[in-house]
Amino acid sequence: MKTFVSHDGPLAYAEAGSGAGPLVVLLHSGYTDHTTWGHQLTALAERFHVVAPDLRGHGESANASRPFRQADDVAALVRHLDAGPAVLAGVSMGAFAAVETALEHPGAVRALVLSGGGVAEPPPGHDPLEPPPVPEFPSDWPLSLLHRKDPETVRVLREALARTFAKHTADEDNPLVPVPDAAARVGAGELSALPVLALDGEYEEPGHLACTAAVTGAATRGESVRVPGALHLPNMENPQAYNRELFAFLDSL
After folding, report:
1. What is the radius of gyration, based on Cα positions, of the chain?
2. Which string of b and e fits 213-237 if b means at least 16 CB within 10 Å?
3. C-alpha distances in Å from residue 192, one per residue of 74, 82, 195
4. Low-confidence residues of the chain, pLDDT below 70?
5. Which of 20, 26, 102, 202 is the most exposed place for a label (fewest CB within 10 A)?
6. Are 154 and 32 contacting, i.e. CB atoms less than 8 angstroms apart?
């Protein structure tokens, strides 16, 4: 792991490869960390410069001491690496962070790969300047995120979750500041010129599919592929199929 000094403490990232292809930044799902990208870090390193950060408040990265935006942290990482613009591949929370980065820091982003996230309207009555409410987790969570529940995937996921939860308390405030008008800006075509690939699981829930479709549908070059045998974390559940589609997309840029 490496770190760089942000405006609010050190942020950690794993780095591999130095190929001639574009910088690829892998953005993990909520409450996990970079270890959920193990299959992609290894595969991509043969041909690409690939980085998987622990987003602020996750894994080995610093917790926030004041309000922050994930878009600013991702863009700061790309600037630190001096290797952009980057292809941002995000799953769930990471997909929302990828889109917000493209909106707020367009010079840092070359293309988007989204799974189970993108943009969504805030719940009725919710202040768009506040983070969305923490969901009520089902009793079998995180197993409910997976269609393929092989023991190694479950182990990696649970250990990542444990590391992040250990950094927080149940009563602390959430300092994350979302980009409040992201859905409207995407719908207005602000990212229309950006290549976008949706890599959603075959069994993904309709609400999450709508979040990715809102971005691919507004892009001139928007593609959508379903990953067989996967639900919400296709990069972990079927890494072979996910990687195959990811490589094809990267080769097309």
Report:
1. 17
2. bbbbebbeebbbbbbbebbbbbbbb
3. 21, 25, 8
4. 122-138
5. 20
6. no
Report yes or no: 77 and 13 within 8 Å, Cβ to Cβ: yes
Is residue 243 within 8 Å of residue 43, measured between CB atoms? yes
Contact assessment for residue 40 and residue 235, using Cβ atoms and an 8 Å cutoff: yes
117/161 Cα distance (integer angstroms): 19
Domain spans in the chain, listed from the N-terminal domain onward: 2-120+138-252
pLDDT per position as a tens digit, 151-194: 999 999 999 999 999 999 888 888 999 898 999 999 999 999 99
pLDDT tens profile 73-99:
999 999 999 998 999 999 999 999 999
Task: State the DSSP H helix or E strand holding residue 196, giving kind and residue range, or none if neither.
Answer: strand 196-201
Q: Write b or e for each residue in 34-59: b if 16 or more Cβ atoms lie within 10 A of its Cβ, otherwise e.
A: bbbbbbbbebbbebbbbbbbbbbbbb
Please tell me whether residue 149 adopts helix, strand or coil conformation. Answer: coil
- The CATH number corresponding to 2-120+138-252 among 3.20.20.70, 3.40.50.1820, 3.90.70.10, 3.40.47.10 equals 3.40.50.1820
Cα–Cα distance measured from residue 7 to residue 34, given in angstroms and rounded to the nearest whole number: 21
